[in-house]
């Protein structure tokens, strides 16, 4: 059986790959979609119906290149895989909020929205790392806020909040 052709990724997000293909001019009884990092070892369940020409893989990691294989199944044979590669989108950073009443001469209080997906803790850091508490950790169930103290007035600081799962 001939392979499907024209694999095209139509929508890519940080956790999904959606793609289309053109099946061969033959009787198709099904498709097997395989995917994975490096090698395509995971099978998309449920498999696309014989008449489908598209599929959506969900639950992927952000910023990772995935290999996708589409195997077309006929009555007595399977095709060689149609192979494509694509990278999921990078995780979009959220905005850290700082209200004017959260800033003093030597301290700052930050808040942030909940991250999508499973999060155990948030790792917080300040650069340059001076002050009393330049790094910290906040459990996912706690209030999403952190106070930096002992800072130097007139210093430009970079603050980051990173999820840890």
Automatic annotation (TrEMBL):
Pfam families assigned: fn3 (PF00041)
Residue ranges occupied by any Fibronectin type-III domain in the UniProt entry: 3-93, 94-165
Assigned keywords, A-Z: Repeat
Tree of life domain: Eukaryota
Record SUPFAM superfamilies: Fibronectin type III (SSF49265)
Xref: InterPro entries: ECM_Regulatory_Proteins, FN3_dom, FN3_sf, Ig-like_fold
Entry keyword Repeat: yes
PANTHER family, sorted: FIBRONECTIN TYPE-III DOMAIN-CONTAINING PROTEIN (PTHR46708:SF2), TENASCIN (PTHR46708)
Protein name as annotated: Fibronectin type-III domain-containing protein
